[in-house]
Amino acid sequence: MTGWAPLLVAGAACYAIKLAGLSLPQRFLGAPRVQRIVPLLPVALLAALVATSTFSTGRHLVLDARAGALAVAVVAVLLRAPFLVVVAAGAATAALLRLV
Amino acid sequence: MFTGASQFAYIGVVGAGGNLWAGAATAALLGTRNALYGMRLATMLQATGLRRFAAAHFVIDETTAMAIARETPADSRYAYWATAIALFALWNLGTLIGALATHLLPNPKALGLDAAPPAAFVALLAPRLRAREPLAIAFAAALVALVALPFVPAGVPLLIVAALVVIYGIRPR
Fold it and tell me: Which residue of A4, A95, B4, B56 lies most exposed, with the fewest beta carbons within 10 A?
């Protein structure tokens, strides 16, 4: 059961955050610092996730086929490709790079 | 946990060998933006009582985008619930298919599936980079995470990044 506890807590926290948004008086969430920080959190966390999921295995920095996949995914995003196309292009690139 | 980026982040941290609680914290931090969405939606949805508890579950990027693009509160409510029901059904159907079907794949790495998460995170990140400040923060966050990575347990670089963002945002200007 221990493996489920963090997942259940995360799920409960994500739901509570949404409910708070619908329920709290505007002055709490409307505070300038909240308005500044909250939109920046996903930017920073997603960028960090891009970096770590591309250039690391465990606690080691590595440069492998995923770097090529990331480059292709970035190009796909710049070309305004839909989400699934970006993901498929990234995966296909890594698969191809490993074949050669 | 019906908020896609948080799901991906949790799996990203745990899949990389990170602590489960680090994954949970990252998922919750990524979900904080939904509070601001909820604040914007509150006046449109006018959901009270039990309806508010139901509506809260579906406060995500997509439902917010569809709801705030409408002219009247009634249209917003319709867009919100239609998007919520369609996305919830299809998202969880997709998850179920993935859970049942992936063990049929003999070698996920040969298919490049380990490169799918970075591509997915890029696709989720890109729409948030339309100004100079978020772009600079994205590059700084990526750099900080990679520098910290060899020295701390998996998942912790993300928490360091989140803490730095809070410090950056809280300072007087």
Answer: A4
